Structures are given as C-alpha cells and as structure tokens.
Amino acid sequence: MNRYFQRYGKAMTAYIFLTTSLWLLGMVLMPQLLMVDYSFWYHDEGVQAIAMKEADRLEAQLDDIDAAITVAESKLDSAVENARPVIETHIAELEAKAGAMEPLFEPLDEAIRNPPRIYGFKNYIYLLTNTLHRSIFVKTMLFSLLVTFIAFALCYPVAYYLSHVAKGHRTGIIIMGLMVPYWVNEILRTFAWLMILSRNGLANSILSFLGLTDQPVDFLNSDSGVVIGMIYCYVLFMVFPIYNTLETLDHNQIEAARDLGASWIKIHRTIAIPYAKPGIAVGCIMTFMVAVGTYAVPSILGGTSTLWFTQIIYSWFFDGGNWNQGAAYAFALLVLCVTFVMFMMRFFKVSLEDIAR
Amino acid sequence: MGSDVLMQNTTMRFDDYVAVDNVNLHIREGEFFSLLGSSGCGKTTILRMISGFLEPSEGKVLIGGKDMRGIGPNKRPTALIFQNLALFPLMSVEDNIAFGLEVRSLSRKERMRRVHGLLELIALPGMGSKKVNDLSGGQKQRVAIARALAVEPKVLLLDEPLSALDLKLRQRMRQELRAIQQKTGVTFIYITHDQGEAMAMSDRVGVMSQASIEQVGTPKDIYNSPANPFVASFVGTNNVLAGRVDRIIDGFAVVRTRFGELMGRSKAGVQEGDRSLLFIRPENFFLAKEYDRDKSVISSTIYRSQFEGAFINLFLNNTNRSREFMVQLANDGLGEIPSSGSEVRLGFRPELALVLPEGELANE
Ligand SMILES: Nc1ncnc2c1ncn2[C@@H]1O[C@H](COP(=O)(O)OP(=O)(O)OP(=O)(O)O)[C@@H](O)[C@H]1O
Ligand SMILES: [Mg+2]
What we know:
The complex is a heterodimer of chains A (357) and B (364). Chain A is mainly alpha-helical. Chain A has 16 helices and two strands. Chain B contains eight helices and 20 strands. Chain B has a six-stranded mixed beta sheet with strand order 6-7-8-3-9-10, sandwiched between helices. A five-stranded mixed beta barrel of chain B has the order 11-12-13-20-14. In chain B, strands 15-19-16-17-18 form a five-stranded antiparallel beta sheet, with no helix packed on it. Chain B is elongated, with a radius of gyration of 25 Å. Chain B has 364 residues and is an alpha+beta fold.
C-alpha cells in the first residue's frame, strides 16, 4: 500500500482503489453472486397454497357478510318506525365484523405474493432429473465442442496463410474481407443464412446443381443449420487469436525446420502449432463460450424442433417466470464454461497470463 | 555424390529488380568458401538459391553435379545456418540438434548417440537438456552449428552467423568454425561482410559487388592481385591515383598522376595512352631518401598525422576529400614521427603498386 502511495500519491491511489473495487464488486462479483444466490433458493409453494385456500375461505365469508348487509339494507326501507333501530344495529354489527376481517388478508396476501424462500438444491436437481433439459444441456455442450473444433480446423490454415504466406498488402485485404461481414449485426447475418439454408435457398440449389442431393436438405429444422450458422458467426473469434500468435513466430524457424528436412505436417506439428498454443487456447475458449451462450442463432436457424440450452434459460426467466430455476440453469452453463477453460489450460499447458495476453 | 556447388549463369529477379545477375561460381568439394560483399548485394539471395528456398529466374544450381531445379530445401544435401540462428525456443538443446534426425526416422538410440557426438564436437557436453534460451550467445551459435551438422549435409551454408556476437567471441568462433570444417570435411559456404573474417577463415573468397561476383580467389590473391578496381578498392584499404598511362615497360606501367609520373605493375587490359588507376596500399610505403628513384616516390605535405602505437598513419593533402590518401608507417621506435604540415618523401616498391584499367570503385 505504501508503495502505491509513493508511486501515485494519496489521491490517485485512493481513486485507483475505489474504482477497481467498484469495478470488481459491480461488474464481477455482484451479478455472479446474485445469480448464484437466486439459483439456490425457491419459493415455498406449500405455504403459498395454504394461504390461497385460507384467503379464498375468508373471501367467501366476506361475501356472505356483504350479502347479509344488502338484505338488511333493503329491509330497512320498508320497515316500520320502531323496527328500524334494531335493523340498523344489526347492519353496524355486520360492518364491524367485515372490518375486523380486513387485517387477516394482509399476511395471506404477503404469503401469496412473496412466499418464504427455502434454500436447497431443488433447482439443480430439477435440471438433473428432467431428461429433456438434461439432454439439451449435453447436446448444447457437444455441439459447441463440434463448432469449436470445426472452427479451429477452418481457421488454423487461414491464420497460417495470413501470417506466413500472404505478402504485404494482400494480408490487409484478406483481413478486411474477413472483418467486413462482421460489421453487420449478428441477427441480420443470421437471417441471411436463414435464406441461404431454407428449403429452396442457395445452399440447396448448389447441392442439387452439383448432383449431390436429389431432395432438398432440411437444414433449418435440424441441428446442422445451427452449427453452420454458428461457425459462420464465430470464426473470427478463432482466426484472430491464432493469427496474432502465429504472426510473432519467426519465419526463419519454419524455414530452418524445412531445411532440416521436415515435411509440412511435421513443421506444423512440432513448430507452428506448439508455438501458437496460447492463441489456439484463446480461440477455442472464446468460440466455445459464444457458441454455448448464443441465443440468436439457434432461435433463428434452429426452427421448432431443436432447442439450445440458452433458450430454455430464456423461457424460465420470461415465459415460466421462475427466475430461480433460470438462475440455476445459467449457473450450470457457467460451470460448464469454466470447466472448459480449465481443461483447455491444462491441455495446452498455458497459464492464465498467456491467455490474457 | 560429390559436394561441389556449381552456379551456372544464375540470375535471380524479384519482379523487375535483379538481385543476382548472371553469376558463375564453382565451389569445390570440402573447401571453406566465403562470399564477401556489402549489405544488400545479393549474398543471402545466392545462399537461398543454393539451399532451395529460391529457384533461380535463370540458370542453374548444381550440387555434386546434380541439377537442383525443383528439389525443395528439405530434399537438398545442404543445411543452412540463419543469421539469427532460428533455434527452436520451445525445445531443449538436445531436441534442437535431434530435430533433423527425427525427420530421418533414426532410432532413438542412434539419435542420442549422434547428439552426444555433436555436443562433444561443439564443446558443450552435458548441456543437452538445457533450454535454448538459457544459453549464452556463443553457445547458441554452436548449437545452431550442431543442429545443421546433425543431418550430415554435404554443404553447410552460413549466413553471417557471427554478426551478433561481440568481437572477442567472434574471433574465437572463427577458429572453432574453421576447426569444425576441417574435422568434418563438409563444404562450407560462408557469408560475411567482414573482410577480416573472410580472409582469416577461407580457402577461397568470392568478392561481390551489386548483384554480381567480381573475383574469386584465395585470400592472398584477392588482397595482392585484385582483378579490377572494385576489388582493389573494396578489399582492405587502398590508395587510388587516377591518370593516363604514359608507357609500358616489361610489365610495368608508368602513369602520369597528380604526384607526377609513378610506376606500378601493369595488369591485363592496360594500354598506353588509356586512362587508368594506380593502387598503392598504405602499408607499402616507406620514408624515402633523397636519392631514391622518382618514379616510385611521392612528395607531399601531411595534413594529419595519427599515432597508433605500432603504426603511424599519415594522411596526405588531398583534393578528393571523399577518398583519403593514407600512408601507414611501422613505428620503429627510433625515427622521427612526421608531424602535420611537414613535407615528406614517401617511396614504394613498384612491384607492390598496381595499375588497372579505369573502372568502378567500391563505395567507401
Ligand atoms: N523476397 C524478396 N523480394 C524482393 N526483393 C528481395 C527479396 N529478397 C531480397 N530482395 C532484394 O534483393 C537484394 C539483395 O538482398 P540480399 O538479402 O541477398 O542481400 P545481402 O547481400 O544478403 O545483404 P545483407 O548483407 O544486408 O544481408 C536486396 O536489395 C533486397 O531488397
Ligand atoms: Mg543477408
């Protein structure tokens, strides 16, 4: 602390600490903690049901009293003079009774609107026991891995070409070419693919023109459309990290390996890929994360029969109105991502600093 | 298969730029050959054509009598040592050296045996498991040599491999390189722009000017009988005097210069009446006596005198300021040191002066 005071002065140090802690608290900790908290409790529905029944019973009693008052009031008009006070006191008694019942509703209303929270694993157990949701979770994970893998297979050659084969201004042109489509909003791009992949869209025309298919392929109501769309949307997350690391690889090393007799496969396996590891790890992590977390692509290209896990989370929050369940699902997804990050770091033997670089 | 390298009418063009222009060169089996030339003259380009990274635009490269066209760098019997060494930083010393052996699918045992032999050769035994980046500059240098020698190349190509080292280390590495070359008998083609290096190590030297080779010969040939004004002015220090040839007698030409008539060995192509250049090296002068013959004596004023311990450098009055006229006298410890502003008479032996037809000089 003293070190910082010396280096930046008191006011500056205080400012730095304040902003950093606000940032940590507001951006990093709070939302996560809030979500974790939400995911571990649920409303006690038993209490809610009892309160509703009780409220209904009281409501019925009140209705009875109201009816009795109406009857009494109608008698009042036609009653003889000396019978009036009796009826009036009767009405007053009934009204007092009704008034006395009012406060009984308050705790019931509270219990209905905001039933007591019960902490526990129910939300998670629900995910584990609901076979449909569980399978969608697994499917989301597997397809994201597939997307990541295909994106890597497509992007590594491109990144290598850009960093070590293409010369001068051609590199710039290709990079621009890669980036320009991404200036268009993701939703719009995805809609373009909706048109390409539809039953009588471009993809099917080409396939049938080449004689590869005799019936139009239904990309949109199968997972293939989602995978294709996602690869398209997220390749840049793979290309650039790999390109950035390969860019710094001394080309002489590639030539040295070549000169020593290595084949191209050997050069990539022993020189280029090991060197690009941090970039590959970052690319895979980013691609996997956006693939797992995407909502637009599967909802536009997935049709009705395919669901992505994010869509279930969405429906818990907005259609089902069960935020706790949604939070548990979201947290499960987060755990999946963190696990993937740790796995990649272990697998590629890169540290967190390498990745942050 | 022999291991001589032959370049026949080899030209390399990059778009319109001619980097190597019609080079003919024969590098003999087992020799230490240096290519000497200033920066950008095309040395690396020649090396890359021999190693296979560039295909000549015209002409041929033959190694051991075999035309190398269409044969990639991984299939040629050459190994290249890069200027920046290009060691593989993610691998240990051992793995670096074994890289080329692994490609040749030798057994692990055989690989290790050879790696140890090479570590011995480069005087780094027991260092095999070290990380490359933990080595000193000189050690890295040796690992690069070992890595290249591991694949048992017929021809080892070295692209200014010592330029990154400090002077002391460079001098030691020169000797080691020479020793390794003699021990292994591999043909070495060594690129440098350090003349001392080329002279000290090589069996023969090729001197390059822009894009072409000016002369090939032993270091002694190159220094003592340069073939043309470029080589004469490029190799070592040389004083040049322009003038017209007055007459030629018994292989000696008398040239009329601004110091009067001077005489030197006449090389082929020098004709009476032609404009020519007379070269005399600084160390070939001595203080002349009054009675010395005037065709090998220069009288001039000294405008700067520089004491260097073993030598005394005198700079003579010179109209051409870009090219100094320098005289180097051995300090015998007794004689007087000529001071600035004084007149001197300087003699030279006409056999050591050289008359060449007029031609392009190397830039200072
Ligand atoms: N791939 C290339 N494309 C275009 N021009 C090139 C290429 N390689 C070399 N050149 C040009 O050819 C000329 C000779 O280059 P080269 O690298 O052979 O010089 P060098 O003698 O090795 O110089 P140095 O001593 O500085 O290394 C230079 O002018 C260079 O700009
Ligand atoms: Mg060079």
